[in-house]
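Work Package 3 (structural annotation) set out to generate three-dimensional models for the target panel prioritized at the project kickoff. During this period the team completed the workflow that converts sequence records into discrete structure tokens, so that structures can be stored uniformly alongside our sequence database. As a representative example, we reproduce one entry of 274 residues exactly as it appears in the project archive.
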Amino acid sequence: MVKQAAKRTPRKATTGRSPAPTTPDDLSRDEDFSERGDKISEIIARQIVRDIARRNLQPGTTLPAESVMLQRFRVGRASLREALRILEVYGLIAIRPGPGGGPVVQAVTSRQFARTSTFYFHLHGATFGDLLDARRAIEPMMARLAAGGRDQGGLDRLGRDVAAARAAMEAGDEDTWRRLTSEFHVEVAGASGNHILDLFGQSLKDLYSERLESRVIGRGDAKRVQKEHEAIHKAIVEGRAAQAERLMADHMATFTSITSKAIPGLLDDVLDWR
């Protein structure tokens, strides 16, 4: 299973081996199916998730055929299919039709987490203003953790992105600059070294990028944003945690200001589920 955030490849929970079908014994059955507090389909789904994580199955790996899993779990076809449907909704598997098809492991990213979250955000009336407030709270924390130097690989990627963004801005390559500017926040999240903050922070960034970024950040903001990114990066690599936190807080305030000016009234709109 891939444990990744959008646009980033590090920290994949994969083995590097070529995808291959699993065998009947690959799916263990260590749940007590006599405990019926949860639906049987949920118990099966949970067990399949554990097996995929335990074996670090790569995207593209085909799980055992339905007949094999029915025999292994000793449950009805309807319960098994409901379990697979649960995992399909979460994006962990896709059901490939036809001969040789079946459930296939998919890459799970922060974008899927973000999409699932919007279902709850929408029903609770969460607004774009709430989204920006959440980013203003969480991103400074991740910058402070990143300055602790717990993920040197993440810091190296962050430095490369900052330098490449500067070169793209000076060359007038707006598309590349936009991509790398967005990637900056992904790399800071990864360099935090905290998997939960990483996933949550990137999912919030994904929601902003998908719905607002292209409508908000223009050429006139490039120099200001680039300068702030470079200052944050410098504080992080020099291990100045308090300064990195403060600079990121100021930077997220910049984003809130740019957004509210670019699209007046937007911050009161409720996040939609999609």
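Confidence is low (pLDDT under 50) at residues 1-18.
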